[in-house]
Structure formats: C-alpha cells, structure tokens
Write a structure and sequence with these properties.
Number of strands of chain C: 0
Number of domains of chain C: 1
Structural class of chain B: mainly alpha
Oligomer: heterotrimer
Number of helices of chain B: 6
CATH superfamily of chain C: Cytochrome c oxidase-like, subunit I domain
CATH topology of chain B: Four Helix Bundle (Hemerythrin (Met), subunit A)
Number of domains of chain B: 1
Shape of chain C: globular
Helix content of chain C: 55-70%
CATH superfamily of chain B: Cytochrome c oxidase, subunit III, four-helix bundle
Strand content of chain B: under 5%
Chains: A mainly alpha, B mainly alpha, C mainly alpha
CATH architecture of chain B: Up-down Bundle
Distance between the termini of chain B: 77 Å
Distance between the termini of chain C: 43 Å
CATH class of chain C: Mainly Alpha
Structural class of chain C: mainly alpha
Shape of chain B: elongated
CATH class of chain B: Mainly Alpha
Radius of gyration of chain C: 23 Å
Low-confidence stretches of chain C: none
Number of helices of chain C: 17
Strand content of chain C: under 5%
Low-confidence stretches of chain B: none
Mean pLDDT of chain B: 93
Order of helices and strands of chain B: HHHHHH
Helix content of chain B: over 70%
Number of strands of chain B: 0
Mean pLDDT of chain C: 95
Radius of gyration of chain B: 22 Å
Chain lengths: 104, 225, 541
C-alpha cells in the first residue's frame, strides 16, 4: 500500500519548536481578542483561531502532511460527518417556531 | 502444522506479511478510532451549539464566571505536553531509547498538571454553587427565570470537560504502560508504533481542548463587564 | 476419543481443544462461532418476549399481563433483538468468519481486538440480561426523554449501560473490518474483484464507526441526567427532549442499515451462485451499498415528524428520505436482472434469497409511505410502522442471515444440512412471517396503535391471524436449530465447494485450516466469474 522508505519523515526539532510557539501565541491572541467587541465576529474569530491551531497540530504533530491519501480521506470523512450531524440537527433548531404553530 | 505463516514477533504479527503492512494497519486503525472520537464529542458539540444558539446572553454571563487566564495557561500546558509527545515519537523514529523515556515522562508530567488544574477549577465551581441539578444553584447577574438556562451551561461545561478529562486519564494510563515498556528498552527505530499511535491519541485529545477552551471560556466576554 | 478417524486433516476446529482454547482464541473463525452462540441465545430470549406479546394480543381485553409488564415486554423484545441479535448477527458471525477468507487473508488485522469485541458484547449482554431479570425496563427501546431520565422506575441505567458496552463491540468490529479490507487483501484481490458480501460489510462498518459513537455519547448524557440531574434534555430548565431524539436517531436510523446491508451482501452471493452468473452491474451493486450507508445518515428526522421538530426540518428529512430508495432499487433490479437467463437451482439458500427480495421490497416500499409527511402523520405509532420495520428487519435482515447460515454451513462445519427439512422450514418461515406481519399493515392503517395491550374488539380477527402466524414462524425457527445441531454429527460430509461457487472461501477445504489457506491465494479472476468457469468445464469435459 505504501512505500516503506517513504514512511519515516523525521522532522527537525526546530520545526516542532516553531509550531509550539505558534500554538502558544495563538492561545494568547484568542484570549486577548475575546475582550474586544467585534460583534458577531467574536465567535468567528475564536473558531478560526481554534481551527488554525487544530490544523497545526494535525499537520505537524500528527504528521498528516506526510500521511498517505487514505489517512487524509479518513480525517476529511470524519469532519464531514460531524458537519452532517451539526447541520441537519440545526435545520430543526434554526427553523423552530417561525411557522407560528405551537410545537412546530 | 500445515501453516504458511511465519513465526510471530511484536513487530510482525502472524496475520501480516510485512512490517510496513502492519504499521499501515495500526495507523489506519488509530485514525479510524479518532474518527469515532470525533463523532463521540460531536454529539456534545451539537448539544452545545443548540443551547448556545437558544440562550446566547445567559451563556455569555455563565461563561464569564470561568477564569479565562487559568484556562489559557492550562491550554498552554496541554500544548506543551503535545510538543513533548511529538518529541517522544521523534526519538522513537531515531531509536534514541533514553530520549523516548525522558519525553514520555515529561508528557505524563504536563498531562498531570493539566488534570490537576482542571480539578482545582472544578472545585471552585463546587464552592461557588455553580453545580447544575442542585437546589443551591445560583448564578449572579442572571434573572431567576433564566437560572435554568444557566444550569444548562454548567451541565454542558461539566459534561464536556469531564469527558475530556476522562480521555486524558486514559491517555495517562497508556503513557504509564509505555514508560514501563520504554524502561525495558522495548522500542527501537524499527518498532515504535505504540508510541506513534499513542501520540495520535494524545494530540487528538489536545485538539478537542483547543476547541473547548474558546467555546466554554471565551463566549462574548466583551458583553459582560 | 477412541473412534476418531485416523490421521484426520487438521482444521480450525480440531487444531486445539478445551474451553480455554475457545475463550482465548484469536482465530476469527472461532470468534465468529462464539458470536453465533451468543446471539442465538439472545434471539431466543427476544423470541420469548415476542411470544408473550403475541399471546397477550390474542384478546382485546389485556388480561394476561398488566400494562406495566406489557411495556417491559415490548421494550425487552426490541433491546434483545436489535442490540444483541440483529446488529451483531451477520457482521459478527458470518462477516467475522468469511470476510478475511473472502479477501484471501490469514485473519482480521487485529485478532486480539476482535476477541475483545466479543467479550464486550457478552459483558454488555450480561448487564442487559441482569436488568431484564431484576425487573425489566419499560421505556421502549428508544429511551425517549424525559420519561427515561425522570419518570421511569425501571432498570434504565443497567440496560443503557449494556447497550453502551455492546456499542463498543460494534465499533471495534467495524474498525477491524475496514482496516482489514484496506490492508489485508491477497495479491490480485483488487477492490473491484472483492465479493459483494465484503463490499456490503465494508459499508456496514462505515456506519458502525461513524454512527455508534453518537449513540454512546447520547447514552452517557442520559446516564448523567438520570444520576446527576444535569438537565440537558429537561424542559423545566429550558432543555429540549427533542434534541435527545435527534442524537438517538442519528445512530438508530443508520442502524437499520447495519442490520440490512450485510443481508444484501449475502443475497448477492447466493443469487450469483445459484443462477451461475456474475451479478448484473457488479459496480452498481457495490457502490449502492456505500450509497445506502452514506444516505442513511441524512434522513434520521423522518422518525420525528410528529415530535416538536420544526416543519421545515421535517420537509428536508422527508425529501432526503426518498433518495435511499434509489440504491435500494438498484440492488433489487440488478438481482432480478442477474436471474435473467441464469441457470437457476432452488436450493435452500436461494429460497431465502427470494424471500429476502420479495419481503424487502414490501418493507422498502411501505417505508416510502412513511417518509411522506402527510401519510406518516396518519400512521405514526400504529401497527403499520411495526409491520414495515419487521418486513425490513425480519423479512430482510433475518432472511439474509438464515440464507447465509445455510449457504456457508458446509464451509463452517464441514457437514451438509438436510436439504429437504431445510426447504420445508424456509417455506414455513416465509408463510409464517407473512401471516404474522401482513395483517399488521391492515391493523395499522385502520388505526390500531403500537405499544398498547388493550384494543377495540373489531381488531381481534386480524390480531388472532397475526398470533397464529407467529406460532407458525416459531416452528419455522426451531426446525433449523434442530437439524443444524443434528447435522454436526450425522450430516453428509461436505466437499470444499459443494455449490460449485467461485469465491475464495470455496477454494480452501471445509472446514478451513487455522490460517485459512495452505498457501496465500493469488487472485486472477473477477468476482463471480462463472462464464470462464463454465468455459473451462466445457473444455475439460
């Protein structure tokens, strides 16, 4: 399935340190930004920073950037299914009550 | 015995033909397991999304009652543990037995600190009577008719951080086993898969926290002075 | 044993002896048989509850058991049958046994995880059995809140915990199958040479891996609410019981496909073997399994049309539900097209496959009635729904399971079952099934609600017919039990390939050796390549 020589990419210590610093800075930024009034964008910013942090951890610490297509597909599939669960549930909760019929 | 299978070793179990095949199987298995974890926590994130969209104001007030500085520092500790974990995997790739052991112990240490801080925070909630389902529950700044909604926030807070902490405790258990094995010199550059897949699990638990932190601690803080 | 045949060939059954060699086995074939014993037990437990339900419904007065006991009977019938029989049935028994052999592997990717999965099912089953013996549970198998969290005085937690643990068995089995299919295929066994049974189990595993964790977290929330009064589904605190239903059906609708997809895989194997033709439109049938698995996740809200769910969500779910009919119809049409100009023989497995196609079609089409918003409001929670899902789960899933058991029995045990008795029991089951459940369509359409043991006298005739059918059905299930056990000792010794079928499982001896093949097979043909097989026969002949 995969070439054994291709498997062990050994990243440098420096690259891991850089990722760690980026993650720590992002944590500080998201905490500080939460005090600013950005209106509806507070949530957007918070989730965007969290997503970037997730990408950094997944790509570098979990080595997805060196992984084969199947692993990437599995991860993408998992996130897609999470989206299905959230979105289809919200079709109910986002439209609840606008009809003016009790209980609908 | 009529059997075409080669003799079994740790690095090559009887059902596999090559070590690369076994490593592929272990890695894919762990990723699939992480997918099940995404869906497991996904149910909780759905609950969170629904109620936060229903009661945004009460959730902002309830969220502000958490100490976000402690939360941020604890996030830093967990990120550090992820760093030491990936360093342990790197040591595995290079077959540096001593470094494997040191980084595994460091990861265990940071994981332990995170859990300790979490325990302190939970204890604070008990002292402040922010425990859902108890008659004494009361959150300052929330109208009496909305106290139930505030309870929902804390229900979600305890359920999500509790399930996350449970995963951390399981991770600590696995780390302890790895440390015992590493002390025996079980791992080498040709066999470090257990460290590799434990790393994936540990980072995943970290990623869950990366989302829990803003979602629980940082909701619309600017609205609440 | 003194009478043992001298120098009997070694296979997975006689390679080692004693209880320990079974309870600690890592052999996927032995684990399959451990599952067989476990789920057979639960089938008869669930069947006993069903018997009591049908006897109670003989009369309109409700004079055999109290209402509370009746609530417990239908709950425990469903819990036993769904979580401890149907969901593990084909994947854990036949899938476990044959999936590795059919792709030419020595075992599953994770044999010890496989054994753990069986223990998890047993432990989960023990919890649920304990709850049944200690006093039972009365919430219905759906555990709807707030009744299950606040009001029920029955053994909710023990039962739910049992289901939670069994859920992990299901997750780990699915995970094991997916990894095995990806990494363990023999040389030449490309994806589009895999038997359709493997495709069906692969699609099923996707559902098990993606859906079951949501059930797990739902049960955790139920537990936390019942024990610690967290109140997440408590309307008194602004929580929403309907949210529980969303999370529950996110798993439990796809769970229906966990039950029926593997059966479809079995039917593909049988139809092809007994009409000696390749499955018409192989790739379509393969992809339709995956399509059913995916689409199955998009339709759960059709179980909630009369709940407090928004009407707009209802419309979305209703619309999406119709899409499931497309891959299902592709399968039925392609099986039928396979039969066309086939050299058909009517052995027992083929009878079950025919039974599956007919009954699944009825169950599937009535499912379309239920997916329509207006129609569903008329028949919600009536016997129409009960009849519909029994046509899918018993007429579909169980028929496929029994067909598969007959088809592969010679391979599993090395003995033939008695064909005459088997044909008779297949016929008895088909007749008994229809007599039991067809009247329930009429009862439901006339308005008889499910889950009540007292009903208007005008419904009695149809209920008596249904109960009569259930007794016939019970006889039909007992006959195979008897002749299967009988055949272990007295059955004709089976050859390696008694049906003249093409799959890899028929290329190894019956029963197979411990690591399935004497030598790793190399695959050079497409699946179901009967055309070249028969050409070879002509040349040789």
């Amino acid at each position: 399935m995969s070439d054994p020589h291709e498997q062990t990419h050994i990243d440098s210590v420096g690259s891991y340190v850089k990722i760690l610093l980026a993650l720590l800075v992002a944590t500080g930024v998201t905490t500080a930004v939460a005090r600013l009034d950005l209106g509806a964008f507070n949530t957007v910013v918070a989730l965007s920073i969290a997503s970037v942090k997730m990408l950094l951890v997944a790509l570098f610490f979990m080595h997805i950037r060196h992984s084969n297509k199947l692993t990437k597909l599995v991860v993408a599939g998992g996130l897609l299914w999470l989206a299905i669960l959230l979105l289809l549930t919200m079709t109910d909760f986002a439209t609840r009550g606008i009809l003016g019929v009790p209980g609908k | 015995m009529a059997d075409h299978a080669p003799a079994e070793t740790l690095a090559l179990r009887v059902q596999f033909d090559t070590e690369a095949q076994q490593k592929d199987a272990s890695t894919l298995g762990m990723w699939l397991f992480l997918i099940t974890e995404i869906m497991f926590f996904g149910g909780m994130f759905t609950v969170y999304t629904v109620y936060r969209s229903w009661y945004p104001d009460v959730f902002a007030i309830a969220s502000s009652s958490l100490n976000e500085i402690i939360g941020a520092l604890n996030t830093g500790v967990l990120l550090l543990s992820s760093f030491t974990m990936v360093m342990a995997v790197r040591a595995g790739q290079l077959g540096q037995r001593k470094a494997i052991l040191i980084f595994l112990i460091l990861t265990l240490l940071f994981g332990g600190i995170f859990l300790g801080v979490k325990g302190y925070e939970w204890n604070q909630k008990f002292e402040e009577h922010h425990i859902p389902g108890q008659a004494a529950f009361h959150l300052e700044g929330v109208a009496p008719s909305d106290q139930g909604h505030a309870q929902l926030f804390f229900s979600i807070y305890f359920a999500m951080t509790g399930l996350h902490a449970l995963h951390m405790v399981i991770g600590v258990g696995i780390l302890l086993t790895l440390i015992v094995q590493a002390r025996k010199g079980r791992f080498s550059a040709s066999y470090y898969t257990p460290i590799d897949v434990t790393g994936l699990y540990w980072h995943f638990v970290d990623v869950i926290w990366i989302f829990l932190f803003p979602l629980l601690y940082l909701i619309d803080r600017h609205l609440v002075k | 044993m003194i009478t043992a045949a001298p120098q009997e060939r070694e296979h997975y059954l006689n390679a080692s002896h004693g209880l320990k060699s079974w309870l600690l086995t890592k052999d996927h074939k032995r684990i399959g048989l451990l599952y067989l014993a476990t789920i057979t037990l639960f089938f008869f437990i669930g069947g006993a509850f069903a018997t009591l339900i049908r006897v109670e419904l003989l009369t309109p007065q409700g004079n055999l058991v109290s209402s509370e006991t009746y609530n417990k009977l239908f709950t425990m019938h469903a819990v036993s049958m769904i979580f401890f029989f149907l969901i593990p049935s084909i994947p854990a028994v036949l899938g476990n046994f044959f999936l590795p052999i059919m792709i030419g592997a020595r075992d599953l990717a994770f044999p010890r995880l496989n054994l753990l999965s069986w223990y998890l099912l047993v432990i989960g089953g023990a919890f649920s059995l304990f709850a049944m013996i200690a006093g039972g549970v009365d919430t219905g198998w759906t555990f709807y809140t707030p009744y299950s969290t606040t009001y029920s005085n029955s053994w909710v937690i023990a039962t739910a915990l049992g289901i939670f643990i069994a859920g992990f068995s299901s997750i780990l089995t699915g995970l094991n199958f997916i990894v095995t299919v990806h990494t363990m295929r023999a040389p030449g066994m490309t994806w589009f040479r895999m038997p359709l049974f493997v495709w069906a189990n692969y699609a099923t595993s996707l559902i098990q891996v993606l859906g079951t964790p949501v059930l797990a977290v739902t049960i955790v929330l139920l537990f936390l609410e019942r024990v610690f009064h967290l109140g997440i589904f408590d309307p008194a605190r602004g929580g929403d019981p309907v949210l529980f239903q969303h999370l529950f059906w996110f798993y439990s609708h796809p769970a229906v496909y966990i039950m029926v997809l593997p059966s479809m895989g079995v039917v593909s194997e049988i139809i092809s073997t007994f009409s000696r033709k390749a499955i018409f439109g192989y790739a379509f049938v393969a992809f339709s399994s995956v399509a059913i698995a995916v689409l199955g996740f998009l339709v759960w809200g059709h179980h909630m049309f009369v709940s407090g769910q928004s009407l707009y969500a209802g419309m979305v779910f209703s619309f999406l539900s119709y899409f499931v009919a497309i891959p299902s119809a592709i399968k039925v049409f392609n099986w039928t097209a396979t039969l066309y100009k086939g050299s058909i023989s009517f052995q027992t497995p083929m009878l079950y496959a025919f039974g599956f196609i007919g009954l699944f079609t009825v169950g599937g089409l009535t499912g379309l009635f239920l997916a329509a918003l207006g129609m569903d409001i008329h028949v919600t929670d009536t016997y129409f729904v009960v009849a519909h899902f029994h046509y899918i789960m018993v007429g579909g899933a169980l028929m496929g399971y029994l067909g598969g058991m007959h088809f592969w029995w010679p391979k599993i045990t090395g003995r033939m079952y008695p064909e005459g008795w088997a044909k008779l029991s297949a016929l008895v089951i088909f007749l008994g099934f229809n007599l039991t459940f067809f009247p329930q369509f009429i009862l439901g359409y006339l308005g008889m609600p499910r889950r009540y043991h007292v009903y208007p006298a005008e419904f009695q005739v149809l209920n008596v017919l249904s109960t009569a059918g259930a007794s016939v059905l019970a006889v039909g299930y007992v006959i195979p039990m008897i002749y299967f056990i009988w055949s272990l000792r007295y059955g004709k010794v089976a050859s390696a390939n008694p049906w003249g079928a093409t799959g890899l499982e028929w290329k190894t001896s019956s029963p197979p050796p411990v690591h399935n093949f004497e030598e790793t097979p190399v695959v050079t043909h497409e699946a179901y390549d009967y055309a070249s097989l028969m050409a070879e026969e002509v040349e040789v002949g």
